[in-house]
Protein 1
Amino acid sequence: MNQVPERTFMQKYHLKGIGWTIIFILLLFLSSVMTEVNWGEFFSNLGQFFALLGRMANPDWQYTNIVVQPIIETIQMALLGTTLGTLVAVPFAFLAARNLVKSPLVRGGIRFFLNLVRTLPDLLLAALFVAIVGIGPTAGVWTLAVFSFGMISKLFYETVETIDSGPIEALQAAGANRVQIIAFAVVPQVVNNFVSYFLYTFEINVRASTVLGYLGAGGIGVFLQRSLSSFRYDQTAVIIIAILLVVVVIDGLSNILREKLL
Amino acid sequence: MMGKSQRRTLGGKYGWLFWALMLLFIYLWTITGLSFSGIQASAGEVTRSIINGLFHPDWAYVYDGSGEDLLSLILQTLAIAFLGTFVSAILSVPFAFWAARERRKNKMHWRSTSGKFTLVFIRTFPELVLAIMFIKAVGPGSFAGVLAVSIHSIGMLGKLFSEAVENMDRGVDEALTAAGGGRVDVLCLATLPTVMPEFLSFTLYRFEIAVRSASILGMVGAGGIGTPLLFAIQTRSWSRVGIILLGIIIMVTAIDWLSGTLRKKLV
């Protein structure tokens, strides 16, 4: 009875693995051709890259005073954008949750819309909003509002779907209407998670908002673009250090708050 | 019950008052601090044109055989993301072992802490700046985009990889050490095979993000679909903008779906 199981032809010669490897190498090769990869050129020009890094290693500290105001503007943009996005996202999240909306048509439609919004990268939105509302932080706030709307509504409806259905059923049995159910059975269960996700999105938006200005959407990115186009890499370095500090501080604060909430 | 525990964590009986005032103050500071330039007069008209462009896309742009059409640039964008993610996945492996904490016992290990800090730094360094620096080195084009994606992705992939290494099952490692395996044997025959499915899954996830960033890197001249998009927006040719937006939406959706399916199979 000690029989070794028979291996099929595919398994014997590892055809699946070999096939995947060949496809993978082919894809790599095609991509290299398409992007005109030239490692020789890269390594021969690497000196230039490091010369640039070297210029960045000597930051122009005088520039710090100029950077403070736009950095604050960046944080304000991120906060306002995230807040607006969240406010719009909440009703959408309730409408997209499986345990609140029974009609698959409504749910499906809203989820499809949310998926579409989420496909758009932040800078692309910034380029569009600069064209619509004009250059300035207003465009940045709009961009971040749409960007965080897409992200937050998904995080929110996934949270709503994980709640305990007991309180909902209890309220239903007591004859509560839809609004009452949401207000007294759903919201108390999800509010801590919502705040936590809000803070998480705020972190991401602070990172995103630092480059939006590159296309004219306000904040520190405007200065980033200015320093880069005037080849003042020592100023660029100051900006990057400032961004790093802000991101680390905001991440830290938000992590402390989130740990307290959950 | 929930309210009680919340009040305890957020300070005192009047904790809510403190937080409410704090929030009020933060939002007042935000709204008064931002210099709203107002919305320009043509905003409504431009919005209508964009929506109109989305519904009447410039179909002729999809393929005209010149190599500068939507299809070839979308493929180029995918190629940038694919190649960049591949290189970055390989580069991230050493970073992962550098930053991974050795079990839980010593919280402040200098090796792991320095590794984690390096990864934070790479993650925060704006990808656009990186792309511009590489453009200075290798000239404008998609190769600069590949390099920017490869370096920038290390920040996130290295972090995810190192967490996978921290949380992995050490049993196989110990078994190999007990059987007399050296460090290289343990790494190649136990550690890497154990974490490989997670590494692959994270790489696929990062690929989804790389596709999005590759589609905007062109805005600074690093190849892909971003260059014609920015040009179309600046010249206000909205039907062109419409077709490019449709292209990006379809591309990103398709890649998300593909990568999601593959990841479900992996883990």
Note: Residues 1-8 of chain B have pLDDT under 50 and may be disordered.
Protein 2
Amino acid sequence: MKVLTIAGKSLRIFFRDRMALFWTFAFPLLLITIFSLAFSGQDSIDIKVLAVQQDNSPTASAYLDALDSILTLERVEDVADAEAQVLDGEVVAAVIIPPGFSSGEESARLVYDESRGEFANTVVQIVDGVTRGFFGLQTPLEVESVHGAYKRWNPAQQYVPGMGIMMVLMIGGIAVSSRIINERKAGTFKRNLLAPIGKLSFSGGEILCGFLVGSMQVLVFFGVGVFVFGLEIVGSILLVALISALVILLGVGLGLLISAFTRSQEAASGATQAFVFPASALAGLWFPIDIMPGFMQSIAKVFPTYHAMNAYQDVIVRGKGLLEIAPSLAAVAGFVLVFFALGLLLFKWEA
Amino acid sequence: MAIVEAHDLTKVFNGRKAVDSLDLEIEEGEFFGLLGPNGAGKSTTVAMLSTILRPTRGTVTIAGYDIKRHAKEIRRLIGVVPQEFGLYDELTAAENLAYFGKLHGVEGGKLKVRIEELLRLVQLQDRANDLVKTFSGGMKHRLNLVVGLIHEPKLLFLDEPTTGLDPQARLAVWELIKRFQSEGVTILLTTHYMEEADYLCERVAIMDRGKVIALDSPARLKRSIGKLEVIEVKARKVTKKVLNELRKLKGVRKAARTTEGLRVLTPAANEVMARVVTLASFAGVQIDSLNVAQPTLEDVFIKLTGKTLRD
């Protein structure tokens, strides 16, 4: 009967721990809700494709309406602008209806970004299928691929930065917060406070340790990406290092913040996951964001992970420079500042 | 010269006074004790004196430095041995000492020599390079004690240093602590073991509910019981009801339950002993032994509060 007594005691403690109840029941339900919302109720595939209509005939309009029933067409006026957006990675493809399309003198053009891999191929197949359905076998469609420095889709360009950001945040968040919680539990935190050192020395030491561990992670991830999976970094490696530094600081700041309001390793781990999983799945770290509904794509922008991923891909795939990625860097840096400020402000210094 | 001076020291937690208007002076080189039951405010006092807890009210100076304005200077002068082990399990004994030594500015050859000295002192020199997680409780206890000494502090706070130790291990720690004092360190010990305070301390402040209720040398404190005698009763099944009945007996000034039975303070031990035996037999309490004992600090506490240090 001792087993029942012990189990009863543990259950009682568990049900009195509101944090444990939240992570056990409420948080998984929250995730289920978010993902169900993200991928349900789609009548059309929410892939944004640009459309330039230079032929205003009813045929051209009806054709574009047919495409719009499956894809999400966004009208632009200028062909050069549409092509630049595709080349820039803003959209995956653009459909251009030139003058003379309805009279059969000219074919429609589908310009797509070849470096987007399977996702781009899917778009081509959809446009081709709709066109065949609309016009029959004689499809007036020319498919034309463009690409940046990356000619071929390499999954590493998605998954090295994507999984890298996720794991740096996960380990940064859990390791930094757990270390601080363990120091409190073991009584070593008190002993550190009793030394003639400033408070910032203690938090600085933890931050430095977290930063070094994160740096090692990034080196390993990108090392494996480059040497094993053939990841080519088109832009500056220094810029990749700069983005990585911000991502690592984001993880350390997250850990610092979590340690300020959690008292057990379990709670710290749960709180980290509560942030990192949605911030990874919804911000394009697990799969390209383009396949998500429009409103979810807007939600993604509230996560620093979205901006970090954008910055990485702009440098790695499109070879963009510092000025071009500055807005993304500023967004990540803003989150770093908020995490650190809150973490240090809420940190409980009394042993 | 006083190394610790505290005036009107008060700490309030959620409206409850954990330490209440405490005045204290500890002389340099003195072995001073704070004796009281759990929750008396001893550890809170040490936390404030050692700069890691801000007082709600009052002033404290350590070696002339104010704790609010010169915390860093004070931390260079003090060593603290916390009640719980403040050790890194994943570091070796030597690494733990080296880490805390460096935090206190002890470096290089001096640190190396000090580590060897301290490990020898607690007979852990052969385990210097073993991880602390492989140590027994007693070994961790010994290491915990000397970590507080790594930077040769002038004032050492020992917070309940023998809690949880068996009598033999406790005696070994007492001998060790006596050696610390012989090196010229001023020691402030908190304890709820009256034998410990009696054996080690030159002066003892008895605390209860955040206040100092008596302060003197152990001998003088014991003499303060005056003409009262102490009856030590070893007995089983002493209920609260029996205790209340006992307190009403003629000649009984104070009585309290102990882990072994009862202690009764009376001016007429021989007469009261007979009454105690009669009451016990009526109440169904089995007495194993009964004798007149020498007063202890526990009896001082019973006289002042009507309860034992373990209550």
Note: Residues 39-43 of chain A have pLDDT under 50 and may be disordered.
Protein 3
Amino acid sequence: MKKGSLYAVFYAATLGIICALALTAVDGFTASRKAANARAEEVRNILTVLDVGFDSAATSSELLAVYERDVRTESRGELTFYTYEHPEVGKLSSVRFDGPGLWGPIEGLLCLREDMTTIHAVSFYRHEETPGLGGEISSDAFQDQFRGVSILGPSGVPGVGVVGDGADEPNEVDAISGATMTCDKVEEMLNRIIEEVRAGGGFDG
Amino acid sequence: MADRGSPACVGCAPGTGPCGGKGMETLRSGVWITNPVAVQVLGICSALAVTNRLENSLVMGVALVFVGVGTNLFVSLLRNVTPRRIRMIAEVAIIATFVIVFDQILKAYYWEMSKQLGPYVGLIITNCIIMGRAEAFALSNRPLVSMVDGLGNGLGYAVVLAIIGFFRELVGTGSILGHQVLLSEWYTPNQLAVLAPGAFVALGFLIAIFNALTRANQTDEMGSQ
């Protein structure tokens, strides 16, 4: 068999098409389960930031059941809030935020207490930051700093600070050493969502 | 190693049987004599990265067996029609297909594990063991014995990962497959084992033991290396 360039091109194209067809078939076969898993992951993030108790080994359908029982969604302005009546701290409202990080997009949830000025929790559930440096934004140590932090500065100006020289105001948390860029971007996206919450979402409902 | 002549497989006369009499030798070579990780020191990146828990190591081992067997089968089946110039492109296409299929199945049916293994399942595409076996063995051998070779090397990788994963999880967290086996009253987990340096230390010991047992990499048996 002559194996000239034309044959090589034909062979590569045929192999490529067969591989692509195989992958398309597998993707179609697994699509519904992958979508269910992605939805469960989303629900898990919301339940976590709202402090709704759930079994950590719960299956996708169990998580969805807990979510549908305890969590309400409310549209205020252009924002969608996920709310939960917490038995100890009262009504909690959480809202999604996102923005560019240093290496890729960062997505998270901001959860506010009933007064809509005190942060109950912050979670960065998706990011591509450097492991060990910027990646630490999703660590409990960093995220837990936000608990009880105000979204208003001492003079009443909305906004939080992720600062490198020691957090001493009620609206400040400590930045991560070696991850200044990531922390700046995190501060920026938090302040943008806080501004949106103040501007409409959080106060007319 | 495939060309070194072929002692008879147990039960098969030399040169006969479905594997041409090379089945047992090929399997033994992959798992033990020329173990891809412990002797050839290939596929180290993933072997170091995912072995902090035994469960991760086992799933990664299964992935490598699946991809190794599938790739070797198809590379071998197509060996007489694949143009030599683009054979590596063809091999990578076949490897990538198997890896993505495994990754998709993991994402659909074993979501938590898929998140833990992160990019390492996808990175099997660039694993030198798979590419190496396709090039060195499947291109010049028949399909069945090529599958045995993929199985042997996949198992060789899986066994090494399982051993490292077992000890790292045991020392690092005091548990096996998530079950606490060393009681916290008298055992303090050594975090070093689950961190990256622990992987290097564990692999180093394992390679030393493997070399001592198989006497591989010794000049009098294998020629200078």
Note: Chain B touches chain A at residues 78, 81-86, 89-90, 93-94, 96-97, 100-101, 104-105, 107-109, 111 (CB under 8 Å).
Protein 4
Amino acid sequence: MLRDMRVHSHTRTLYHTGAYKRVRIVTIDGGRGVRQWLSQLGLGVGDIVFVKRNAPFGGPILVEHEGTEVAVGRGIAEKILVEDE
Amino acid sequence: MRIVFVGQPNSGKSTLFNVVAGYKSMSANFPGSTVNYTVSKARVGGEVVEVVDLPGTYSLTASSPAETAAKQFLLEEKVDAAVNVVDASLLSRSLEFTLQLIELQIPLVVCLNMIDEAERKGINIDAAKLSGRLGVPVVMTVAAKGIGIDRLFYVARRVAKKRELPSIEIPVRKDVETVLAGLAGSIDGTLAEKYPISKRLLAIKLLEGDDAFLSLANENDRRLVAEHSRMLEETHGQPADMVIAAERHALAMEIAEEASTVSKPHRDIRGSIDNVLMHRVWGYVFLLGIMYLFFVAVFKVGALFEAPLLRMFDSLVSAAAAHMDVSTLLFAIVKGVIQGVAGGVAIVLPYLLPFLFGLAVLEDIGYLPRVAFLMDAFMHRIGLHGTAIVPAILGYGCNVPAVMATRILTSPRDRIIAAVISTLVPCSARMTVIFGLVAFYLGPTWALGLYIFDIFVVAASGKVISKLLPELTPGMILEVPRYQAPALVSLISKTWLRMREFVVVAWPLLIGGSALLALGDYFHVDRFTNAMLSPVTVAALGLPAAVGTTLIFGVLRKELSMIMLIQALGTANVVAVMSPPQIMVFTVFVTFYIPCVATIGALLKEIGAKFTFYTIVYTFLLATLLGVAARAAFGIGLL
């Protein structure tokens, strides 16, 4: 139920984005280390990413950007805010 | 002349290196698995060139030890030319790294690799246009097929001989440039002296917050850096490092777009493979299936060779006995040497070789990151995250690279936990003990059971250590590369490199140790060690006293414990002296007790003396506890 409400709001975390959605990254929290790791893989604020799948049991999210696929753990995905593209 | 290969993980860099250098280096379709650099000599156009393969790194911002190693090498060693291997199908992302290399102002060639992959994805790159924008030569290659490599070396040698430096400085937006120039103009010159880089790059690195440079800065410089960082933050509304990263990001995207044309991609079934292998249900079914088939295959191949080889060596011993006086010292030594060779050739090789080859296949195909994705949630239960599954899996091959691979984890706390639990994973040496004793005498199901039991012990240990180090794990960010058909040259070199370590290091130990044990047996020295260890071996575990000495050898190399067992018991037919339950208890103890000397060395290097000591104590207590539990479960009475 809670999940559905979040899907309808304007911005939400990457973790709460369902699979097969195309979203734009709005902010990345979680410190310099996290930002740098993501930026190395070509992921930064403003980029449009495609959520390919999410793992069960609170597992990671698989996002795709410019041909690169990145698995992002739940803790980090919860600190990335996205909006619908 | 020294030519250095740099590139992001999975760019085909190590494959290229293998093609050039022969069967001497390693590669892996996994981020950051080449932790140390590999050096080789290659003959190119009548000239002997030293080629260096640096660890695959995503950037030079150094957030992991592998990146620090690569950056240090580029800045501090003599580099005649650097070859930046780029995955052509991931041009935009890869160019961010290329831009950082250009900033270093070293002779550089961009090797646009896997152009066949790019074309399959509908991406056509104009190399001339790209070269024009970057100010460095660009050569197209398909390393796995050997295409374009002659041309690459021709250009690299030219660049090295003429010391052709990248011809442009990276442009940034005007206001950023003003801040950069301001900082570059005011920092102390002594900071730049240590590294032969421009003050502008130094300013970039300092604003990025690069620790390698910041730690060298004096107080005044730090104040200047803080001041200029604030200027960028105020005008851009985000931290200085992000402003710099965003500049590079935008420029890389712009250049990539300009240099490539995109058409309709070809159909690629690899895209659908993950619909099964990473599926929320089928993914796990296949993971179990793949692991099961893998171990069954290793066992089948190994068993095929083990029995006939052992028979051959047994008949050698009989032949020696027929021609010599069995009561002499010489016979004792001859027998010891033969049994040492038998252990190495007949028991270890048949299992080790198929295992290492199979692991190399799984690595190069790119399956391991998928396993990390599937297992992330479970790894969190034991206080780690998915990436930590990789050292654990590598541990099945050998604990030494496993402990070293913990460097791919960013948090020191995660590295410690991952390193400790990696030592509990039964490596191929212990696999030979499990297969050679448990599978051989009790049946393969028992061996599989021991492997499954081990997973529980690893998980429980992870949980216990997490409780002792209660910091939160930062979580997983891991590239999941596309599947690649493994190149045979890479598979063979990887198997050979790991195999060679065993042959070179272990065989002399095996043969020497075996002869030593025979000598000890002849002079009855082993009685002393056996008596000393009997509180554990006999009283606690209910094993014959003769196994005591073998456990000491097992610390040298784990497989020695079994080979020495054969020697200590005086027969290759272990079941004649020990009952199947005793064999099980012995194997359980050997699986978990004290890591081998090589692993202890790796632990010392990665997690320090204190935690290494804890690991030794912990594993010894754990092994004794589990051994006693196994004894109780199998109901071995007091002897």
Note: Chain B touches chain A through 45 residues (CB under 8 Å).
